[in-house]
## 1
Amino acid sequence: MAVKMRLRRIGYKKHPIYRVVVADSRTQRDGSVIEEIGSYDPNKEPSEFRVDSEKAKKWLQNGAQPTETVAKLLKQAGIEK
């Protein structure tokens, strides 16, 4: 089972807000998740990104692969493998 850290879209039309989730790579974008670890709001100036760094590090150490966008956000937050 491949586990990915990715964004899950919430919010309303033309006003996206995302949750950073850990999910099986075979599930849909907004499908079932294993754990929610943070949130990302690109509509604010500057963009607001909150993540539980302990959970993120735990999942990265256990082999979860972040998507490109999540990897970029984690790098900006100072969280790396």
## 2
Amino acid sequence: MKIKVSAAKRKNKDIFIKTDFIRLDSLLKFAGIAQTGGQAKSFIQENTVKVNGEICTARGKKIRQGDIVSVFSVDYHIKNEN
């Protein structure tokens, strides 16, 4: 018996912000990834969040246009609404 295994395909989503930056924990709530600030903090502390390909544990990290935040097999591309 052969078992075929493949990795789940990553999804891409655009997140539009109106300001120059948004804090990482606020972004997780804004994007609907976390329902509360406490949940956002837990996701960040559990090393499940990457910013531009690197694990980020700073919940106050400033996320700007052009950054890519990866959580749960989804890449969120940050763009300015302007």
## 3
Amino acid sequence: MGQTSLWMFPIYGMASIIGPVSHLLGKCPVLLRGAIYSVGIFTGEYVSGSFLKKHKMCPWDYSRAKANIDGVIRLDYAPLWMFAGLTFEKILNITNGK
């Protein structure tokens, strides 16, 4: 069964930082930009997940996955987060006329 929380709105809202970060990364290679996005998303997910878990409000639990850290992030999701970050970057570039 899926679960969610009102806390997910500000957590997902943190993706708005991809816009300014994409301007700073400018001409960096795609894999480097993707890796930076992945690390950023992992960091946000770990910090927010740890906080929510401490207060027994975390709607996700990855503790059964092999590549989990403290049950709040899954390292095997790295390629997905890279793709998500690069996709958001592309959407922002299109909407900003670049």
